[in-house]
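Please review this pair:
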Amino acid sequence: AATKLASAEKLMYFCTDQLGLEQDFEQKQMPDGKLLVDGFLLCIDVSRGMNRNFDDQLKFVSNLYNQLAKTKKPIVVVLTKCDEGVERYIRDAHTFALSKKNLQVVETSARSNVNIDLAFSTLVQLIDKSRGKTKIIPYFEALKQQSQQIAAAKDKYEWLVSRIVKNHNETWSNVSRKMQSSPEYQDYVYLEGTQKAKKLFLQHVHRLKQEHIERRRKMYLAMLPQAFEALIPDLDEIDHLSCVKVEKLLETKPDFLKWFIVLEETPWDATSHIDNMENERIPFDLMETQPAEQLYEAHLEKLRNERKRAEMRRAFKENLETSPFITPGKPWEEARSFIMNEDFYMWLEESIYMDIYSKHQKQIIEKAKEEFQELLLEYSELFYELELDAKPSKEKMGVIQDVLGEEQRFKALQKLQAERDALILKHIHFVYHPTKETCPSCPVCVDSKIEHLISSRFIRPSERNQKNLLSDSNIDRINLVILGKDGLARELANEIRALCTNDDKYVIEGKMYELSLRPIEGNVRLPVNSFQTPTFQPHGCLCLYNSKESLSYVVESIEKSRESTIGRRDNHLVHLPLTLILVNKRGDTSGETLHSLIQQGQQIASKLQCVFLDPASAGIGYGRNINEKQISQVLKGLLDSKRNLNLVSSTSSIKDLVDVDLRIVMCLMCGDPFNADDILLPILQSQ
């Protein structure tokens, strides 16, 4: 209770924990070794202490107060540890203060930092009357205000951290230096301390790392079904294997390292592999996780279902071939009830069965027509007594039908009467005007086959150079890569296929070409998205885009593809003919955007040294993809490029060819199977 203290050349300290450890703390000496006391904080612990009686404490405080009161100095009663305070103790302490004259009480918690400043500022105001009077706030109200203040400061600090820290590899030392001058950082550290600020930073970094790992995990799991398709596509090989045995089987595959990487340390998400963005191969220890096992089971189930569906297709086809109810020309609606059962409906959609039925109908109709043609040849005497113009009367047609009506080959076309009558008329026309064009066996007419064989074996001098150089057997086939993002490639491939015949043939300038399409929409460095495969050698590439992102994807994919062939012998991809095409977004009529995309496309086309097509130059309206005319132009350009390559690379000698003019008389029935080479080559060689 002394008001004058003397402690010359002694250090100040703030708590007893510093005693004996003075060197570890900031060293301050008491001013001039003397200190005058201007006021007192009288502290009362209102928590429940071990082996301590609160009433005894209150008696001690009362006696202490009596000593302090003699000094005539201001006194403030401070209730400490209110965060653990006992309600009765707090009430008794207030009662004690009320019994004294003008004694103010401040409820505090040092651990929660509640009302600490208020306790000192209240005492300062009592010492210095010129200061404004401080309002004393109860503990719980002050705690609420402080919680709100801390929450607001925490939100601002977390916002600051999220704005600055974008990478999970950031360190606290670097980031704290960047935030040092930010008021959000300063306010939170003032309220909660550096350790809590660091803790929030570490939580944010941990969250970023988990999000990064989850993105990589999803990418790997998305690639896993493709890896299964490439490495273990055979059901017989894996049908009864456990996941552990499948892992061993995968390691024996030649292409294993194209899809997987075996890490020295595991698990993969605790290694540096998560930051290796260049390597997109799947960590092999991922196979031991439950999602990977589920994907393997899904792959297994898919293969089993595909086998079952294939079995259903075969069983259905066998039903068609053996059923006596399936006759040429019978509609699906009439045939369905005879051949369908519950198992068929369980495994395949009706549209698939309809397609199989349609193909089967085509086969049996063609066979029935061939057999009917044989029947007409057998009854050739029916057609000898017609008029010179070969137009039979109704009576004559009736006689022909009466004579043939009992024949099974005639009845087989009962549901195709119009076609049957057309075959009869065509046969009559051939009898009286026998040419290659009217031959019922066209295009396997023997005359046509002989002419084609002779023209393909021998070339006249005037046509020798050009025809020989263009005799590449692959000239009748066009392999086309379609490159585009977000469904563009698949959509255009479907549109082109819709313009083809049923067997993927496309007509260019009156000639039929086999068209093979390879739409690519993913990473071209992956085997599944490669421009070329052992069975597919591209002749050209259509590059589609409708936005900046899809144009960037095209450029990046072309560059990756070209880089992959540098230094190889088969580096023809470097010179692969390209066509860059702007495809309008459906419903997008923004001229500004379209003009910008056209300019960017022209720049990229100049850089890649390729053809550029835009909607305006092709006469295409908004909301439409490229039309049939454009497709034909592009394919014709690729065909010309292919021919030019053949002209340059051809090394076949044509000097020894001679001009041959042959006249061969052959007695062969049109349509009969025979090997023309066996018959004609000896004759041609002798000439």
In short: Residues 19 and 580 are 81 Å apart (CA to CA). Residues 4-137 form a domain with the Rossmann fold fold (CATH 3.40.50.300).
